[in-house]
Write a structure and sequence with these properties.
Elements lengths: L3 H10 L10 H4 L13 H7 L6 E5 L8 H14 L3 E4 L18 H5 L3 E4 L4 H5 L4 E6 L3 H9 L4 E3 L5 H12 L3 E3 L5 H14 L1 H21 L4 H19 L1
Parallel strand pairs: 1-2, 1-4, 2-3, 4-5, 5-6
Length: 243
């Protein structure tokens, strides 16, 4: 249970039942819910990369960024000299349709170690052995999917719950690095190298791997998620008795 301490406080404060069910994407059959066409060829590209060597970059399905930030992110990835898989959603750059505002020589400089797509099958990407880190907006779905696959994160939240999720990842669970909007190319370069190649990155990977194992245990018969789902079903069934 990832939020055990917070849930204990809530249960103490509110006199209502709590059912800690999840993560749902691990409990329900696999289904595709994306409204954007996934470019699955990126998985074949990942197959050619070394183990835990690639940084996956995606800021989700809603956030938009300015052209200046896109260029700083591009140069940060280029200067890190690490392989990357970068999702740039169409119309996610203010004033641009797609990647026309990338630096002119970016593609030539990173052709041998970079892959840019409009959208990716994220669950498959995060479970791929080539992925070593995830530069993310810290939406709750992405956060859970990354933890469930044991992938440490570089956190660049945009709005809403993403700010709280980022705080948990970096300061409570310590499986992520905080990246400010103003970090620039140098900050991005350092963060990518740190999470992929440093001792600190290895320690974060060890912690998130432990969290992954705990989640898997929760889903087994007798685990907290399994039991909570059973309790929820029983609770719903009592409604008919009250009618």
């Amino acid at each position: 249970m990832l939020e055990h301490e917070s849930l204990q406080k809530l249960q103490h404060h509110y006199n209502v039942p709590f059912f800690t069910v999840g993560p749902l994407h691990k409990m329900a059959p696999l289904s595709r819910t994306s409204l954007i066409k996934e470019e699955n060829y990126c998985l074949a590209w990942l197959d050619k990369q070394a183990y835990r060597s690639v940084i996956y970059v995606s800021l989700g399905s809603l956030a938009t960024i300015e052209e200046e930030e896109l260029q700083e992110l591009a140069w940060g990835l280029a200067n890190s000299e690490q392989p990357f898989l970068w999702v740039i959603r169409p119309a996610s750059i203010n004033g641009s349709e797609w990647i026309e505002c990338l630096p002119k020589d970016f593609e030539e400089r990173t052709r041998e170690r970079g892959c840019v797509v409009q959208w990716a099958p994220q669950k498959d990407v995060l479970s791929h052995p080539g992925i070593g880190g995830f530069l993310t907006h810290c939406g709750w779905n992405s956060t859970l999917e990354s933890i469930c696959e044991g992938v440490p994160m570089i956190c660049r939240p945009c709005f809403a719950d993403q700010l709280v999720d980022s705080r948990y990842l970096t300061h409570v669970w310590r499986v992520g690095l905080e990246l400010e909007k103003t970090s620039g190319r140098t900050g991005i370069e350092k963060a990518v190298r740190k999470i992929l190649t440093s001792k600190e990155g290895q320690e974060m990977r060890s912690r998130v791997t432990k969290m992954k194992q705990e989640i898997e245990s929760c889903l087994l018969r007798g685990g907290s998620s399994y039991n909570s789902l059973c309790d929820l079903v029983k609770f719903i069934c009592t409604f008919s008795e009250r009618i």
